[in-house]
Specification:
The structure is a homodimer. Chain A has about 130 residues and is an alpha+beta fold. The first copy, chain A, contains four helices and four strands, in the order E-H-E-E-H-H-E-H. The interface between A and B is large, with 50 and 50 residues.
Chain lengths: ~130, ~130
């Protein structure tokens, strides 16, 4: 599966031929910092080594609300990553130590568009004719 | 379409019967503050009044990278919101004034799960048997 992007944009996952899959993980952190950043960084690195991984977008506000969207080639790839041992351990620790609550949604990406200010002002959705 | 949530969680959109749709908007803000917060707040309020609107999750980090995921009943509802006049104007202004680059993905939510620390430590994906 090849990326449609000709340039990379920090923080944004590439665009791909659809369909592919998104895992939308929205979480409220508590105030426990111990071990969190190290584990989160380790999981980002480990996820990127899994079959079918396409990219990730992640941010968290000062209020502790975070959204991480990871992109995958197939539902099978998502299921395999969920079974990965270190990932299972990290999820268990997240529930025990770091999260107040979260929601997780698995979604099939049907369309994707990108825009960069260097491209000009046109709406990419209009350019795509949809 | 009724929500599956028995309690609400600040910052998280409710869970719903699948399928429904997500619009994943990931954007890098520039440093221009003038008018942005007011317009963003106005669009959140206006979106919530549109047919088919289900909820929104939104956060932005100190580096200016933001992710907003809005949830909708159908692709038709998403298209109608995109045609809404004030929303069109706000998008044009966003491209002209406030964004460095963004990606927008439209995705069909096929599964959703939630967890709250008051519920205990079990993985909701395991509880769901999937």
């Amino acid at each position: 599966m090849s990326s449609h992007n000709t340039t990379t944009h920090p923080g944004l996952a590439p665009l791909f031929e659809t369909p592919y899959y998104a895992v939308i993980f929205t979480s409220q952190r508590n105030s426990v910092a111990l071990g969190y950043a190290e584990t989160a960084d380790r999981m980002v690195t480990l996820a990127a080594q899994q079959p079918g991984y396409l990219g990730v977008e992640s941010t968290r506000g000062a209020d502790g609300l975070g959204i991480t969207v990871s992109y995958w080639r197939s539902l099978q790839d998502i299921a395999a990553w969920r079974r990965e041992g270190q990932h299972q351990t990290a999820r268990d620790q997240g529930r025990a130590d770091w999260y107040e609550h979260y929601a997780l949604r698995i979604a099939k990406v049907e369309r994707n568009y990108g825009w960069d200010h260097l491209d000009g002002s046109a709406d990419p959705l209009l350019r795509a004719g949809s």
